[in-house]
Design goal:
The complex is a heterodimer. Chain A is 40% helix and 16% strand. Chain A is α/β, with parallel strands linked by helices. In chain A, helix 6 packs across helix 7, helix 11 packs across helix 12 and helix 13 crosses helix 14. Classes of the chains: A alpha/beta, B alpha+beta. At the A-B interface, helix 1, strand 1, helix 2, strand 2 and helix 19 of A face helix 1, strand 1, helix 2, strand 2 and helix 5 of B.
């Protein structure tokens, strides 16, 4: 059973392709169940039916409206569609009609408009909770604050209003608040990211305020940079969002854009497979014995540029040979390691640099996504000071190593250690477990790990045993991350190797206010209109051509 | 790498008794379709009970006997957190896929898995650990399911 398939995540699309292949071989005993919350059911069925049977039907889901949502599968066409292959069954309970309201003129600031609309609903409309779609955590936090502030101006005897956030990264307890009924004479207003569109269902929502944007990841094959940008939603998303108002009784949806804006939206959201770095997926498919990626039956084919770029990278990493076959043992092992290909390569090169133990730690630490430091309001300065204690000239990776080392030798036992150093205990505990997991993988490959970082082996945890070790680590990182190389400019920004993109050191990086020449980085992300690099380490330019001659010849 | 982390996953609003879930009315038609056709597409919102109820219907209807396996991908509500997959295995303890599963299970956060099972109102918590019987519940990403399937199991 493939659950929530409508999200069209990269792994869902791969799984569906693999299942279709297996279904052909085992039509009798394999049963596939696909669950989908939205209107794409026919697309899934058509995919499994193959081309012959499904040709005459154009994609009707594109034109699906709220009314179709309400009528559900009572439509008899569902019974005929599917041939011998399958059927669609609709479990939806009754949907109630939703009034959709548009703006007459576009809003200048949708966040401000959303807060205003919430107050208009609160003061003028009958009972019922409100769900507001925003794009991210910062927007949500500021909206929650704005509501709290303005709520003070309400008449003391008026119904009160309770703003609640909903986004990834909230603790489980915080998440549960949105599902609890508000106390008497209180209206709940939930500010949520896209997760409330289909993945999370909240009872009692009568009003939906819809800003028309969602944050989507998109990978640019030319620059190799993945961005997370607020993007206009699709018609299918807008319909789904509006439908959230009609689950308990008739509701209203306030679209904070004009009807003409709506008409101009794309029919459906571009699936992840068409906007992602495909190197991990292609590596996985190769490991499954699917060599001809171009002819693999994807539900939506990825664009050629993405496939080419991924093959190029995997080849440069040494995972594929001249015939695009998986190399043994390197490529096979990279596919098995549960980290992305560049880090997998780094891990598998580490033995030859004599720094496997250190690289294991760095791999675990970078996988935390920057959640190592933790501070309360007003403590930022003191946190920076604490952080400097672990910093080393070479950059962020070895600094992370120092933090881990200190945590293992002190922090695990003393509760104060993490508190005093503004280190996130939970994140560090996770790093320990990820490290152990990676270590088990390597041991299964028969790779010996000489632990230099156990709690008692090293008495000077804040150094890494001299310069040469540090250099080995940086060289080793270059064998995996050569594609993420950049040169610092006189103004302190960076340019990537292709030259076109201006990169900024993330404020959390040591390179934020230090001088460097060439660097490699773990991660690149676009926030607002700046592109940041995170986890940055100095390297020598010559190492790039030494460890990735093919890659730097291609460019 | 966050593949086995369940800490941030939960199935919201499933506190209703199973018989009141919208899906209960469709039990017979679901089982009929799954029996008859290779592919069944189920359209339903979170909270309709599909994730928790369908595997149980299938188990009760005998889809777990003779070494058959029901595998369900389990998507947390937060796409940034990786997807996990619930795999309920009813097969002889020493079969190869089971060994693979127990190995993976060591890296699971068992406590949050239990919470998840209890909140979802299912009996799955009973199968959580490979006790004396041959039933086991483990968590898998879609990636690992692809691997499991293409190696010819189940």
């Amino acid at each position: 059973m493939v659950d929530e398939a409508h999200e069209r995540s990269l792994s869902t699309d791969v799984l569906l392709g693999v299942l279709k292949k297996i279904m052909k071989r085992r039509p009798k005993d394999l049963r596939i169940i696909i669950s989908s919350a939205t209107l794409q059911a026919e697309d899934f069925l058509r995919f499994f039916m193959g081309d012959a049977e499904s040709q005459p039907k154009p994609s009707e889901s594109d034109a699906m409206t709220l009314d179709d949502l309400i009528t559900g599968s009572s439509n008899p066409k569902d019974n005929a569609f599917g041939g011998e292959v399958g059927r669609i069954i609709n479990l939806e309970g009754r949907m109630y009609p939703v009034d959709v309201l548009y703006l007459e003129t576009p809003a200048e600031d949708y966040l401000e408009k959303a807060v205003q609309t919430v107050f208009d609903i609160h003061t003028k409309e009958p009972e019922g909770d409100i769900l507001v779609f925003l794009t991210g955590r910062e927007e949500i936090d500021s909206a929650v604050q704005a509501i709290s502030e303005r709520a003070a101006e309400l008449h003391p005897r008026a119904q009160s209003i309770m703003p609640l956030p909903l986004y990834a990264g909230l603790s489980t307890e915080q998440q549960m608040y949105v599902f609890e009924e508000a106390s008497e004479n209180t209206r709940k207003v939930i500010f949520s990211t896209n997760i409330a569109e289909a993945s999370v269902t909240i009872d009692g929502i009568i009003y939906v305020v819809e800003t028309g944007f969602v944050k989507l990841r998109a990978y640019n094959p030319l620059t190799g940079i993945e961005t997370l940008t607020a993007t206009p939603i699709s018609k299918a998303s807008a319909t789904q969002r509006a439908g959230r108002a009609g689950r308990t009784k008739p509701g209203k949806c306030y679209r904070l854009y004009t009807e003409a804006n709506f008409e101009a939206l794309e029919a459906a959201t571009v699936p992840e497979i068409q906007r992602s770095n495909l190197a991990p997926v292609i590596l996985q498919l190769k490991a499954l014995g699917i060599d001809n990626i171009v002819r693999f039956d994807f539900i939506t084919a990825p664009p050629a540029e993405l496939v080419i770029r991924a093959l190029e990278l995997l080849y440069s990493l040494g995972a594929l040979d001249d015939y695009a076959k998986l190399t043994k043992p390197l490529g096979v092992r990279m596919a098995e390691l549960a980290v992305e290909p560049m880090m997998a390569k780094t891990l598998l090169s580490a033995t030859s640099f004599g720094c496997l133990s250190e690289i294991l730690t760095i791999a675990a630490m970078t996988s935390l996504g920057g959640n190592i430091w933790f501070h309360h309001d007003g403590e930022k300065k003191r946190m920076e000071t604490a952080r400097r204690k672990f910093a080393v000239e070479e950059g962020d990776h070895i600094t992370l190593l120092n933090v881990y080392q200190a945590f293992i030798s002190k922090g695990k036992k003393e509760a104060r250690f993490c508190h005093d150093n503004f280190i996130n205990f939970k994140a560090m505990t996770r790093a320990v477990s990820i490290r152990a997991q990676l270590k088990r993988y390597l041991e299964r490959f028969g790779i010996a790990i000489d632990e230099t970082l156990s709690s008692n082996a090293n008495k000077t945890p804040l150094s890494v045993g001299g310069l040469s070790k540090g250099e080995q680590i940086r060289r080793c990182l270059t064998t995996g991350f050569f594609a993420h190389a950049a040169k610092m400019q006189p103004d302190g920004t960076f340019r990537n190797v292709a030259g076109g993109t201006v990169l900024h050191a993330h404020p959390s990086s040591l390179m934020f206010n230090r001088k460097a020449d060439w660097v490699i980085f773990h991660e690149v992300m676009e926030t607002g209109n700046k592109t940041f690099i995170r986890d940055v380490t100095k390297i020598e330019k010559g190492w790039l051509t030494e460890y990735a001659p093919e890659f730097y010849k291609i460019r | 790498m966050a593949e086995f982390d369940l800490a941030a996953s939960f199935i919201p609003s499933l506190h209703k008794p199973a018989s009141l879930l919208p899906i209960a009315r469709h039990r017979q038609s679901l089982l009929y379709l799954i029996e008859t056709y290779p592919v069944t597409i189920v359209v339903g919102q979170t909270g309709s009970g599909k994730t928790t109820q369908i595997p149980q219907y299938l188990e009760q209807a005998g889809w777990c006997s003779d070494g058959k396996i029901i595998a369900v991908t389990q998507v947390g509500p937060f796409p940034e957190k990786s997807r996990v997959l619930v795999l309920i295995v009813f097969s002889p303890v020493e079969s190869p896929q089971l060994l693979l599963l127990s190995e993976l299970q060591k890296s699971l956060d068992v406590k949050s898995a239990k919470k998840l099972a209890i909140r979802s109102g299912s009996k799955m918590s009973l199968h959580l650990l490979p006790a004396s019987n041959s039933s086991l519940m483990a968590y898998y990403s879609e990636r690992l399911l692809s691997i499991l399937y293409s190696h010819g199991t189940p």
